[in-house]
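Structure tokens please, single chain.
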Amino acid sequence: MGIKKRWNKGIAVTAILTATILATIMPGGLSYHASASESNAVQFQIGSKQAVDSRGEHTLREAPFLLNGHAMVPVRALAGGLQAELEWNEAEKTIFLTRSGLTVHLILNSDSVVGSFIKGIKLPEKVMVVNGTAFVPAKSVAQLLGANTSWNASDKKVMIQANEDISNALK
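Here you go.
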């Protein structure tokens, strides 16, 4: 390798190292262009009691599972990852979720759902309790809260990303 090529390679490596160091010590760290929606996300793995959101990794009481091809996830972890408010009504066995002006009202052992802009919609699976943990179909409930989902079949992971532009989520 010629001196000029080594010199150029050395300059490039130095520039990359300098940029990396500066990015980690400057205010804001490496999130220099991060949007708010990146902080409102949650990831579940089927069969694993570990979930990851903006606050870090969490141990779930019960692992997400597949039911008739639908990913069922703990509603409390889903709400927390999307920074949605969750209210549980023990007497009526209902769950009330609120996020960015959207509301979702779920009833245990039912596939009916009521909420903002929601009329006559049925969930693909009933809201259910497994060993004291309420589970909901991830994709359907996430969409009703204005979030997008993606599925990685090889890793059996469902990723849920909040859509901060709710007007797009409602289309």
